[in-house]
Amino acid sequence: MTIDAEQLLTLLAVAETGSVSEAALRLGRGQPAISERLHKLTREIGEPLYVREGGGIQLTPVGQALISDIRQLRAKLQDIENLLMRQKSLQAGELRIASTSLIANYLLPQYLQSFQSQNPGINLYIKSGVTYWEGINLSELDVFFFEGEMDIPHLPDSYEIQPWLTGEIVAVMPKTHPLASLPALNLEDVQSLPVVWREPSSGVRRILEKAFRKSDILPAHFIEVADVESVGAMVKAGLGIGFMTRTVFEQRPDWGLISQPITSSQLIWQSYMAIPNPARRSRALSVFLDLMGSSTLSARDFSEARQG
């Protein structure tokens, strides 16, 4: 049986208008097309669905029995059409993001605020923190933000890598710290002092460790914390010198700390986003990327560049 929705909806239009000509006007089709649909539907059902009486059309009991279900079908199709139209116009839908906590807390909010103000019907789902990456299913995400030097989940070849924001890593300390009067710091300046830094998986931490090794420096001792907020709290308490990007530091004047550049080795932090190739992107993701700008590498090229 090859009954399609148009045939059923045509029968409903004829039943509601009482004539083929009126049904043709309602559906925006010619009368021959309407008659052909009705004939095909009748042949598929195997018995008459309507009869002509008094210049109009009356449904047979078989035809009448179909009407209730066809009305439900029309309502469902209208719901689907409305949903697709809302998604196409971004009046509905969702944007799913995974990210490190630093990026989620300090870099994404301004972009998400701009996106939401333009597309208030889109629901945002933000998963942040490295622990979320265990067992992560990239197919359930629209975009994945991460930091350079970090270990990340395997990216399928269908994904592209976009270099995103960069930032200078600075040292932060209380205004009363013995090194606070210096215009800038060398890594050697902090060798004998306690250091407050992030967990080993942190991108900032790994950049610092690489710079220390390159300069053949080993911090005297350190305090390890799990997030940048804890770095600020520990440094504020006088427990050591902290390190973070200047962008993050400038968003936290409440810490009452000062920052100093590191001159012996310019430490640059880089962030990236992993996104599906254009054919696999949702409408919401495409609009979000346009808002931020887009310049991509393939997942394979990115992997080779890191290994090089």
Automatic annotation (TrEMBL):
InterPro entries the UniProt entry points to: LysR_HTH_N (IPR000847), LysR_subst-bd (IPR005119), WH-like_DNA-bd_sf (IPR036388), WH_DNA-bd_sf (IPR036390)
Name of this protein: LysR family transcriptional regulator
Family to which the UniProt record says this protein belongs: Belongs to the LysR transcriptional regulatory family.
Keyword ATP-binding listed: no
Matches recorded under Pfam families: HTH_1 (PF00126), LysR_substrate (PF03466)
CDD domains documented for this protein: PBP2_LTTR_substrate
Organism expressing this protein natively: Acidithiobacillus ferrianus
GO molecular function: DNA-binding transcription factor activity; transcription cis-regulatory region binding
